[in-house]
UniProtKB/TrEMBL annotation:
GO terms for biological process: proteolysis. It comes from the Bacteria. Residues 6-424 form the Peptidase S9A N-terminal domain. Keywords: Hydrolase, Protease, Serine protease. Belongs to the peptidase S9A family. GO terms for molecular function: serine-type endopeptidase activity. This is Oligopeptidase B. The keyword Transport does not apply. It comes from Nonomuraea polychroma. Residues 482-691 form the Peptidase S9 prolyl oligopeptidase catalytic domain.
Length: 696
């Protein structure tokens, strides 16, 4: 095959007819994963990609070495205390996966750690490298220790299809129990006495819908809950207090919670409050009462309390505010912490309980009167609780980062209000945050809405500069300002990196999300285009390379159809670009669940017409398109590989411009390759392609 001749996908016209509309899908045959021709086509695409990017080999290796050289390969996480142990993980140079460990807890302060130096009395819980062996893919789905610290439940995936096998390990003897359970989902929870482990299973549409109880040493597991509504997922956890098991069922817009005394694993779960369409809530046990975070008549959520014997009776404690989105509540014995979002940034509010007040209602009211927020000095940052498994503690562990500050772990002393820096991720090779600067800009969307943009660059970089513009904009997921080692390879070459905080995400609260979903989804795409034009008009950018993944890959496809002239290149990772065909098929993973996000085009002709107006695959036309790199994985269960495969084939046959390239990981899932060195090489590949697009 000539390096200039791309694979040509055969055309087999397949008609789709809905609501009086007929669409001819010539590449539907690529959805048959078992067809040898499908695999042959994907392998031919990979070969063509290698030929087209062979000239980037030296640059790829250079960028890989930069990422590797800036990373402290032998490192330790900050230990977190749980009961009688400090838990942490370590990485070792040359090894792909982390090793989970623990040491006995002798004091309230975490033990001092030194990379490469084994702590006294250190015990290995799980060695990812040992478990992975020579498998090309490896992932851990859950790792959960019993409350008394004697037993570990862990699950593994060797394909990338997110179907895990659950095993149990005695941490006192190192012995693996014979109990083994296959085809389970992420997560799980122990009973208080460690005799039973609760886990979830998925249905054919990859929806976690059943909760089972496994009693150690038995073969017949008990189904304790099954969700029959196809719009709902289920999950289970153990409260920080270890008092209650919490079983949650939720759709995109509605939730329902059941609780069970964790000391009675064979008991019956009771409903906190029955589901009401559009109402979401979560439950946090705070000792002698519950906290309830909910959005009943409170778009940005409010915080309420409820008695243990009547958890459905809610009394507001932090009222709804239009400018503040309450994200979560973490309850401890002597205080509570509210994680919130305001003005596009995250924050923490501390509610200290007065020790002199015994009545829980009065104590909570006093805590709110004395509440305060922790201040941080940078104009852009992201902060949140991290690693706080202990219910009784005088310290709050939090994670902090910005676009110039590497991920940092702090302990916040509740008594002294002191922030103690425990660790900042080392960045080797002479990195100095003072060489970089970050900014917040506001672009004006088509309808006049101001869209926030986070920007980082080297101080000595000239403007306008080649720019990577990243976006997501779905599921109320926020792309907060954060640090990236690989990004330095762009910034140090004079690039600007920007994040468009478009509607459909959660950066500006629940309303921001509502204005970018269902039949207002186009706002997500037009916001992104408006940001690109703003960056050019204000002198920040010249050649813009757009990048996004998953639902952000849908964004990439949509903006390329809307304004192909604005972009010098597009990187779309595991992109949801065949959205209408997927959402029309309820047999596919996640489809029915997704109707609350995108609408139901199968039964609603207006939704069908609206989605057809923007779905990337069906709107490719004959205009010149920028070069596009689509990256996918054969075993992805969330965005199936055939979506980008079909999209690239259609671009080749219809559009001008390009080139249009497809890279398929033949042994990975939604997150790509699993080992850290493999992941760095994949990122180096994408960055080398971006660098060429931005500087050529």
């Amino acid at each position: 095959m000539s390096s200039n001749t791309p694979p040509l996908a055969k055309k087999i016209p397949t008609e789709r007819t809905h609501h009086g509309d007929t669409f001819v899908d010539e590449y539907a045959w690529l959805s048959n994963k078992e067809d040898p021709e499908t695999k042959a086509y994907l392998e031919a695409e990979n070969e063509f990609l290698k030929q087209q990017t062979a000239h980037l080999a030296d640059l790829q290796e250079q960028v890989f070495q930069e990422i590797k050289g800036r990373t402290q390969e032998t490192d330790l996480s900050v230990p977190s205390r749980k009961g009688a142990w400090w838990y942490f993980s370590r990485t070792e140079e040359g090894k792909q996966y982390a090793v989970s460990c623990r040491v006995p807890a002798d004091s309230e302060a975490p033990p001092e750690i030194t990379p490469g130096v084994k702590l006294d009395r250190e015990r290995v819980i799980l060695d990812g490298n040992e478990l992975a062996d020579d498998s090309p893919f490896f992932s851990i789905g859950t790792s959960s220790v019993t409350p008394d610290g004697t037993m570990l439940a862990y699950s593994t995936d060797y394909k990338g299809d997110e179907r895990f096998t659950l095993r149990f390990k005695n941490l006192e003897t190192g012995e693996l129990l014979p109990d083994e359970i296959s085809d389970i989902f992420y997560g799980g929870a122990w009973s208080a006495d460690g005799s039973a482990f609760f886990y979830t299973r998925v249905d054919d549409a990859w929806r976690p819908y059943q909760v089972y109880r496994h009693t150690l040493g038995t073969e017949e597991d008990v189904l304790v809950y099954e969700e029959t509504d196809e719009r709902y997922w289920v999950g289970i956890g153990l409260t920080r207090s270890e008092r209650y098991l919490v079983l949650g069922a939720g759709s995109k817009i509605t939730s329902e919670v059941r609780i069970l005394d964790a000391t009675d694993p064979t008991g019956e779960f009771r409903v906190v409050r029955p589901r009401t369409t559009g109402m979401e809530y979560s439950v946090e046990h705070a000792g002698d009462f519950f906290y309830i975070l909910h959005n009943e008549n409170a778009e940005n959520f409010e915080l309420a309390t409820a008695p243990l014997d009547d958890p459905g009776a809610w009394t507001p404690i932090i009222a709804h505010r239009d400018d503040t989105r309450l994200l979560e509540i973490d309850a401890f014995q002597d205080h509570a912490v509210v994680h919130f979002r305001r003005d596009g940034l995250t924050g923490l509010r501390i509610l200290p309980y007065p020790s002199t007040i015994s009545d829980w209602r009065e104590r909570v009211e006093a805590a709110e009167r004395n509440a305060y927020e922790i201040d941080f000095p940078e104009p852009l940052y992201d902060v949140g609780p991290a690693g706080n498994p202990e219910f009784s503690t005088k310290r709050l562990r939090l994670a902090y980062t910005s676009m110039v500050t590497p991920p940092s772990v702090y302990d916040y002393e509740l008594d002294t209000h002191e922030l103690i820096l425990l660790k900042r991720r080392p960045v080797l090779g002479g990195y100095d945050p003072a060489d970089y600067e970050q900014f917040r800009e506001w672009a004006t969307a088509e309808d006049g809405t101001k869209v926030p943009v986070s920007i980082v660059k080297r101080k000595d970089a000239s403007k306008p500069a080649p720019t990577v513009l990243y976006g997501y904009g779905s599921y109320e997921t926020s792309i907060d300002p954060s640090f990236s080692v690989p990004r330095l390879s762009l910034l140090d070459r004079g690039f600007v990196f920007a994040v468009a905080h478009v509607r459909g995400g959660g950066e500006m609260g629940r309303r921001w999300y509502e204005e970018g979903k269902l039949t207002r989804k186009r706002n997500t795409f037009t916001d992104f285009v408006a940001v690109a034009r703003h960056l050019k008009a204000t002198g920040w950018s010249e050649r813009i390379i757009a990048r996004g993944g998953s639902a952000g890959g849908l964004l990439m496809g949509a903006v390329t159809n809307l304004a192909p002239e604005e972009f010098a290149g597009v990187v779309a990772e595991v992109p949801f670009v065949d959205a209408l065909n997927t959402i029309l098929d309820p047999s596919l993973p996640l489809t029915v669940i997704e109707w609350d996000e995108w609408g139901d085009p199968l039964h609603n002709p207006d939704v069908y017409a609206y989605m057809k107006s923007y779905t990337p695959y069906e709107n490719v036309d004959g205009r010149p398109y920028p070069p596009i790199l689509a990256i996918t994985s054969l075993n992805d269960t969330r965005v199936l590989y055939h979506e980008p495969a079909k999209w690239i084939a259609r671009l080749r046959s219809t559009a001008q411009g390009g080139p249009f390239l497809l890279k398929t990981e033949m042994g990975a899932g939604h997150g790509g390759r699993s080992g850290r060195y493999d992941a760095w090489r994949e990122e180096a590949f994408a960055l080398s392609w971006i660098i060429e697009r931005g500087t050529s």
